[in-house]
């Protein structure tokens, strides 16, 4: 008796059903380390672009704050020397300030998403997350800037300064702050998703390569050694319909 030529821990090269190595086509193989290095190499620039997008969107909140101060309706107040009252108790100026902020935030969200898609058509989850984060931060910046640039926050001191019976403006504030802060990121994400679905690049159709060693019209690997090929029984014949 002779020892087997193939070690027990190493599969035979004549086995047609052994798992093939990672490959991209006939004659091309890629190891796991090469794939991992390529993925890590592509992640760095993508994260950098996402950080830049988040910063630019956040800084644009300055424009939202300035426009809010300029366009938001004022709430008139009046003092009788002992207390401060609304001049028009049935007025809707307070709700108008919130509505103005929300409408402006929606516009900024649509505009920021359109600009990001224009310069970066490939999209990606990192860009969408950056748009959302920048929208929230930009809304917070706009809110604080608008409150700072708006009328005096100390109502009592302001009433004493203007005197009795003189109308003055109430501080600028958001009564539905949570909804106002979410308007920008939601509008940005929805707009970017719609633009990507309509005008984004399409993935190419997959090209099915040839199994290494299989030639078009050639014999099945292992057939010359008597190994059964796909679709054949161990006896060499195709399985019947009832089997």
How would you describe the overall organization of this protein?
The chain has a domain of 140 residues. Helices cover 50% and strands 6% of the residues. It has 6 helices and 5 strands, in the order ββααββαααβα. The strands form 2 sheets. A 3-stranded antiparallel sheet has the order 4-3-5, with helices on one face. It has a two-stranded antiparallel ribbon with strand order 1-2.
Annotate the secondary structure layout.
Blueprint (H helix, E strand, L loop, with lengths): L22 E3 L2 E2 L2 H28 L1 H11 L4 E4 L4 E3 L6 H27 L5 H25 L5 H8 L5 E2 L7 H23 L44
Antiparallel strand pairs: 1-2, 3-4, 3-5
Helix pairs in contact: 1-4, 2-3, 2-4, 3-4, 3-6, 4-6
Tell me briefly what this model is.
This protein has 243 residues and is mainly alpha-helical. The protein contains 6 helices and 5 strands.
Global shape: elongated
Largest sheet: 3 strands, antiparallel
Fraction of residues in β-strands? 5-15%
The number of helical elements comes to: 6
Distance between the termini: 39 Å
Oligomer state equals single chain
Please state the structural category. Answer: mainly alpha
> Average pLDDT, to the nearest integer?
75
**Poorly predicted sequence stretches spanning 5 or more consecutive residues:** 26-40
Characteristic key phrases:
about 240 residues, 6 helices, two-stranded antiparallel ribbon, mainly alpha, three-stranded antiparallel beta sheet, elongated
């Amino acid at each position: 008796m002779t020892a087997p030529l193939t070690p027990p821990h190493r599969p035979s090269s004549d086995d047609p059903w052994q798992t093939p190595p990672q490959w991209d086509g006939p004659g091309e193989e890629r190891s796991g380390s090469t794939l991992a290095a390529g993925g890590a190499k592509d992640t760095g620039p993508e994260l950098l672009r996402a950080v830049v997008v988040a910063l630019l969107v956040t800084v644009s909140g300055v424009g939202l704050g300035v426009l809010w101060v300029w366009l938001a309706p004022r709430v008139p107040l009046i003092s009788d020397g002992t207390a401060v009252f609304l001049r028009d108790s049935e007025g809707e100026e307070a709700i108008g300030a919130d509505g103005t902020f929300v409408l402006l935030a929606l516009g900024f969200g649509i505009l920021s998403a359109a600009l990001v898609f224009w310069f970066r058509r490939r999209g990606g989850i990192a860009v969408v997350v950056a748009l959302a984060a920048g929208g929230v931060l930009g809304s917070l910046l706009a809110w604080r800037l608008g409150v700072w640039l708006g009328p005096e926050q100390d109502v009592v001191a302001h009433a004493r300064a203007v005197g009795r019976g003189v109308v003055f403006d109430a501080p600028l504030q958001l009564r539905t702050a949570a909804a106002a802060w979410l308007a920008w990121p939601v509008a940005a994400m929805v707009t970017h998703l719609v633009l990507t679905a309509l005008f984004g690049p399409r993935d190419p159709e997959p090209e099915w390569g040839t199994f290494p060693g299989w030639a078009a019209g050639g014999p099945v690997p292992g057939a010359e050694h008597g190994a059964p090929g796909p679709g054949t029984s161990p006896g060499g014949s195709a399985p019947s319909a009832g089997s």
